[in-house]
Hints:
By secondary structure, this protein is an alpha/beta fold. The longest helix has 20 residues, at 229-248. It has 2 domains: 9-95, Orthogonal Bundle (Non-ribosomal Peptide Synthetase Peptidyl Carrier Protein, Chain A); 103-321 and 354-386 and 456-482, Rossmann fold (3-Layer(aba) Sandwich), CATH 3.40.50.720. The strands form 6 sheets. The chain has a 7-stranded parallel sheet with strand order 3-2-1-4-5-7-12, sandwiched between helices. Strands 6-17 form a two-stranded parallel ribbon. Helix 9 links the parallel strand 4 and strand 5 (255-258). Helix 1 runs antiparallel to helix 2 (44-58) and helix 9 (229-248) packs parallel to helix 10 (289-306). It has 18 helices and 17 strands. The protein binds NADP nicotinamide-adenine-dinucleotide phosphate. NADP nicotinamide-adenine-dinucleotide phosphate binds at residues 41, 131-132, 134-138, 156, 158, 193-195, 219-223, 235, 258, 260, 294, 316, 318-319, 329, 332.
Amino acid sequence: MSLKTTYSAVQIQEFMVSNLAEVLETTPEEIDVNEHLENYGLDSAQAMVIISKLENLLGFKPSPVLLWHYPTIAKLAQRLSEENPGKSSTEESKIVAPFLDLGAEVVLDANIIPMGNNKIDVTNPKNIFLTGGTGYLGAFIIKELLAETQANIYCLVRANNVTEAKSKLEKNLQQYAIWDDKYSQRIIPVVGDLAQPLLGISESEFTELSTNIDTIYHSAALLNYVYPYSALKTANVLGTQEVIRLACQNKIKPLHYVSSVAVFESNAYAGKVVKEQDSFDDWQGIFLGYSQTKWVAEKLVKIAGERGLPITIYRPPLIAGDSKTGICNTHDFINLMIKGCLQMGSFPDVDYMLDMSPVDYVSKAVVYLSKQEKSIGQAFHLQHPQPASLKSLVEWIRTFGFKLEMIPYQQWQDDLINNVTDKENPLYTLKPFLLERWSDEQITIPDLYLQARRPIISCEETLKALQGSSIVCPEIDSQLLLTYTSYLMQTGFLSLV
Ligand SMILES: NC(=O)c1ccc[n+]([C@@H]2O[C@H](COP(=O)([O-])OP(=O)(O)OC[C@H]3O[C@@H](n4cnc5c(N)ncnc54)[C@H](OP(=O)(O)O)[C@@H]3O)[C@@H](O)[C@H]2O)c1
């Protein structure tokens, strides 16, 4: 089948403007066609909605890689209007990503050098700076910091003003059942943006913070699995550089950086055991732009460490719900995948391990470890010590009364392509991500994450460091899964009918 119709750049532009406005719940007049799309802060699901709609309009799937070259609506629309109208509908827009030398991206501003010779007290900080407090893990880190320290917590928040920032933080903490009025005085919003020089904070406020803050937790990042490296670099890589700048300026502040096990996604680590202190120099074969930014950002933090900044790195796997309440981020990949597969009635029969740890384990471990002198200079793996297989999760979901069949991956993929046409199914928006072909082998993301291609993440040293605390990673057993499912059903995210 050929292209449905040939559209002009102006028509595609209008279509994108109206769809972007709809997704962002704003008016088309608010959309600037020359603004970099990344600046609209779309999450993966929102980006998928727009890509899926474009696919419907154009009759072929525009590769997310196009955003690399054409990052604004105006440029993208012009480029898409030039697509060959004879292209088959199943054929994707074949844009080959330019070679990205991630190693060359690892450049930390030479002016960033730890200043001052202040004594560091990791156990009793008075003023903490935290990024990502309006996100999932950040909220739980705030909870732990409130309980385990007496410190005031200065939170970087994207907002128009302090009032809006405060209410954004409060809403997020309420959503995760963390907010308590009595803590209000200790949670201080700082309006800013990771993607701006000096974190979008005025020079005078940046200087003031750099003098008053005792320690920093950097948990913010743009978690978008569709965007290429170029679209995420400003927030995730350059933003980390600005956080390091703050940590080094005027006074030395320990930096606690939330990285990811994704830094070991290069095929060089496939099947190998990787320990906390192992180097992660290989980057070839890290395909997701998000994972690429995490690799570069952690390298920048390492350089800061070599320049004398006290750094500690925390690498979580997928972060699952609270083990006690089941409260979780329902927009995350695993929840959307489960919901979508339940609607399809089938799950792909693939060899995956459930690389996930409950959010309360991750946040408690981060805060406990951050208060130990000997953690400085270390990396920690917050991997689950006894991960379960994905198959066992599916079997368990069935015992709860859900109808879910395990079918061969190819069959599941065909089903996804042909039968998931309802926008209410979360997999509809995830389709481009799940079907995109990557690497020289042209395989899909689910293939790339098969167990055989993954490293074996050891958390032995982390468990040793947690000995003496009461922090234990809850088992992935029927009790935990019951807690999760009950929460998802109570909130209406999942239902038996
Ligand atoms: N979730 C996981 O499964 C997982 C796994 C491994 C590692 N991690 C890492 O854990 C950290 C936290 O993840 P999460 O699940 O909590 O993510 P999340 O819920 O998506 O939260 C991301 C946070 O980053 C903030 N942010 C994004 N761009 C920003 C910008 N330009 N300026 C200021 N703040 C910005 C967001 O603020 P807004 O509210 O303004 O958007 C939000 O507070 C990230 O570093 C992530 O890479 C997460």
